[in-house]
Amino acid sequence: MSLDATQQYTVLIEFVHKHLDFHNAELHSVLDMHGIRIGTDCHVQTLPIDGRSSEVRRPFKILSFPWSFIGCKFSVSDGDENTKREKCINLVTALSRCTLIRSVLELWGAGPTIDDCVESVQKGYYPRRHQEGKHLGIGDGAKKFEVRTWSILVHTLGSTYTREEQNDMRSAFSFLHLPGRVQMKDPDDEYLFIREVELDGQGGAVYPRHSGTNKQVIPENDARPPLACYFGRVLGNNGLGRNWRRSNRIEQYSLKKRCYLGPTSMDSELSLIMTNLAQIKPRGSFVFDPFVGTGSILLTAALRGAFCFGTDIDLRVLRGRNQDENISSNFKQFDLPPPELVRSDNAIYHRHFRHHLPLFDAIVTDPPYGIRAGARKSGSRKGGEVRPISDEHRYDHVAQTRPYAVSDVLSDLLNVAAMTLKMGGKLVYVIPAMSDFDERVDLPRHECLTLNYVCYQPLQTEYGRRTVTMTKIKEYDEKKRSEYVENTWVNGAESAEKVANIRERLIEAAKTKPGYEEKALRRKAIRKSTKETKKKAKRDAATKNATENAASTTDVPGDKGEAAAKDAAL
Amino acid sequence: MRLLTHNVMRNNASGASKATSPPRITAVTKVRVDDSSSSSADDDDDGGAGDDVVRREVEFARHVLPVLDWDSLLRAASALGLTSLPESVSTELAEDEGFLRALYHVLMNVHLVDGMLTCEVTGKEFPVTDGIVNMMLEEHECE
């Protein structure tokens, strides 16, 4: 069989069923960062489906590349001999950066039913290409087709099939006549058959094969045809394998593993996605977080190889709890170079730093919205006339801060990004919103920044947050500063208002729920009792001290003395 | 505080709007110099960890060189007792790997842990404690 120009090299990308709105944005961003353009270098193919129209999001994506690109412009080799070659982009290495990709297949065939799938594998060029084995490389490590060990796995997206049933599905591909030995653990070639079914928002099957209670097969669901079937060879077999996420050890960066945390630390998964949206390159990137807090976002930026710079107005979070619990200790834990921290105020960034420098490759941040942490900026709490600090008080003086309106937090953030990003640099930030927030009109804007992606993450029914990615496209003009700030909110105060009082609105919403009163009373009682226990402990400690002092002179018999002895023993 | 950070800072009191250079390092109580190899981050997509660190450092230095205020950097470096930098940077030097590595070392591996920065125009002092500069303004200095 010869190749005609219409045939394409296709890969199937399987996403984890999480952060659904981020799948495309992360993938596009990572492809873009490696210089792979969708539309010219590769195309997105529609997923196979039999007549049914599916409303649900499917965790798959098919990308196709012209055959002529494979092996010269792009490589899909598992080994790294090709990564050293100039100008050749290793697709596997590139895609493995995506946090949300579970695995990637070289798609040998696909169709709405298993028969269609088998037929398309038979028609395709892949089996013969693999048999010829030119792409397998000629290095010492590369094994010839005849001796390659293999396995075929069956993936049914949460539906359970017995071993025999799985074997039936496997045997549909016995025509491949793979000559090597079967090896289930770490084979040279891992083939995967995927039977896709409809998934709900949580990633569970909409029509489960077994009932949840007695584990009986539900006949009408069992008879339901699959949404689509796929067969292919797993890419990234050297080290990555079937589950890229496990190989990339995303778990180890979990917040639970870190020694220093705060209430606003960003979860590791979302912050890893943010580093991809920000396109942080492995070498020489300079990343800035103006609301650094416990440094959770910068940590993942450093994992990607960036040099990190963070500022915060709160000196306490920057210094951490003690020697072993601070931002630097988190970085040390993963053997990363510590970030640079400065206590400063983002509202007046232009007065702290030489702001006209295009310094940063990316700004990645989670600004304070007053939901868990309130924003503050420099200035007198009382307002009005402020006297300068006299010389004798200067060294003891603690500079005051005052509340910082959310609308100003965002307009300052965008303005600082426009000032300090390099041309083409990325701003990635998180913005919470209730359901009334319309991202088309309510998102803050800046003349120098263009909007790339807005990804929504639902948190509660009415409430969620968006991760916004912007790129600097225009030089910042200092003279237009006030104009920039004025034009941040297209809808003026109305838009700003929607993100400003989320905490209050969440509390209001909670109050309308049934059972709120009882819950509130119970919480109040718990708070009261904890307070009393603390008070009592304090009182006891005081009496203990008093009795100890007394005991050193005379013996005090009775309850107090015994309690003190007990305390001392504890 | 690394010297790179120092180099991008400026005097920030409201009276000092004309001051564009970083505040002067006026007191140095504690300095930490990291070993250059200790700053290696894990990078498993290509081999040769040592090579990779060097490449990363050189690339980073080349990256930041155009934005540096060279005179301030020289002054800051000499305040910390570093004299390895040349008086000026020629275009040939900017491509020299040895120079870029030395520059990286000065910018990134030398930390002012405890000390004081002083604004040349207003005389305002910014203390550095545990490597963190406190750039906060006092109330009367805000607009």
UniProtKB/TrEMBL annotation, chain A:
Q: Which PANTHER family match?
A: RNA METHYLASE-RELATED, TRNA (GUANINE(10)-N2)-METHYLTRANSFERASE HOMOLOG
Segments carrying the region annotation (Disordered) are 374-393, 516-570
Enzyme class (EC, first level): transferase
For this chain, the family text in UniProt reads:
Belongs to the class I-like SAM-binding methyltransferase superfamily. TRM11 methyltransferase family.
Q: Which SUPFAM superfamilies match?
A: S-adenosyl-L-methionine-dependent methyltransferases (SSF53335)
Stretches with biased composition (Basic residues): 521-538
* Keywords tagged on the record: Cytoplasm, Methyltransferase, RNA-binding, S-adenosyl-L-methionine, Transferase, tRNA processing, tRNA-binding
The compartments listed are: Cytoplasm
Q: Which GO terms describe its cellular component?
A: cytoplasm; tRNA methyltransferase complex
Could you tell me the EC number(s) of this protein?
A: 2.1.1.214
What name goes with this protein? tRNA (guanine(10)-N(2))-methyltransferase
Q: Where is the Ribosomal RNA large subunit methyltransferase K/L-like methyltransferase domain?
A: 257-309
Q: Does the keyword S-adenosyl-L-methionine apply?
A: yes
User: In this protein, which residues make up the domain named tRNA (guanine(10)-N(2))-methyltransferase TRMT11 N-terminal?
Assistant: 95-202
Q: Name one GO molecular function term.
A: tRNA (guanine(10)-N2)-methyltransferase activity
Q: InterPro entries, per this entry?
A: DNA_methylase_N6_adenine_CS, RlmKL-like_Mtase, SAM-dependent_MTases_sf, TRMT11, TRMT11_N
What PROSITE patterns does the database record attribute to this sequence?
N6_MTASE (PS00092), SAM_MT_TRM11 (PS51627)
Q: Name one GO biological process term.
A: tRNA processing
Ranges annotated as biased composition (Basic and acidic residues): 382-393, 557-570
TrEMBL record, chain B:
Tell me where on the tree of life, at the top rank, the source sits.
Answer: Eukaryota
Quote the InterPro entries the UniProt record gives. Trm112
Annotated spans, Disordered: 30-52
Q: Which Gene3D superfamilies match?
A: 2.20.25.10
Output this protein's name: Multifunctional methyltransferase subunit TRM112-like protein
